[in-house]
Amino acid sequence: MRFYFIISFLFFSFLSQILSEENFIAYPKAYDSGKFDYVIGLEISRLPNSIGEDMFEQLPIIALDIRYGLPNDFSLTANLRTIFLTNSISLGTQWSFASGHVSASIGSNFMYFYGFANFSSMDVSAGGYSVIPSFTVGYAMKNLYLTFKGEASVMTLLSRQVSDIEVETSKFKLYGWRGSFIIEQPVYGDTYLLLAFKINYTGYHYPSWLAFTTTKHWLLIPEFQFGFRL
To answer: Are 129 and 112 in contact (CB under 8 A)?
Structure first.
């Protein structure tokens, strides 16, 4: 992981010397009202061996992030994650402020997720709602944008079922923290790349809900995201 981080940072630093326009989505600087942007790519989680078999160790997920500029330095944000058996969608707002090369924002998202596995002898499903407050700070270095983001996750409802039998229900519970380091680099015109390294400290990592049948302790779960905007 450390090797990929160093190579990626050097790659983005090189690109910053040759291009281009101001484009970003995670960097917390305010958008102009009406500006729309998105990033699409993949997000991969690495699960500890204590909670999953080999098939659960790496979970590539299609990741779509959207941001829309609102008046008074507000932005509307939306996120979609899906691998068919596991899906989530979130919607929220953030307010940005800046001083020189440094920008920051505070925000909150409301997320819904649903997962199901109905094949062979397995018929299980899980779903839930959560509120995710966040604080973000970033530094602009020419056309290279470095962003640090901290999030807390409060599960307002979690339900798991086997066939038609509900086997677990939880409400209003803090279930995780996440820290992210994000690099964004414009490449050409409106095209840019996003690279994110994330660490989850969580008692319930929803993308791996199938592996969380009996685990009740909190775990550190790293994530990697690669995305682009065409």
So the answer is: yes
Task: State both tokens at 93.
Answer: 């707002």
**Entry pTM:** 0.82
HSE at residue 193, side-chain half, CA atoms within 13 A, is 15
Q: How would you classify the pairing of strands 165-170 and 122-141?
A: unpaired
**Spatial distance between the Cα atoms of 151 and 149, rounded to a whole number of angstroms:** 7
pLDDT digits (tens, 9 = 90+) for 71-124: 999 999 999 999 888 899 999 999 999 999 999 999 999 999 998 887 767 778
Q: How far apart are CA 189 and CA 121, in angstroms?
A: 51
Strand ranges (E), 52-101:
58-69, 74-82, 86-99
Taking the C-alpha atoms of residue 60 and residue 31, their distance in angstroms, rounded to an integer, is: 30
Residues of the chain with pLDDT under 70: 1-22, 49-59, 120, 165-169, 211-216
Q: What stretches of the chain show up as alpha helix (H) in DSSP?
A: 2-15
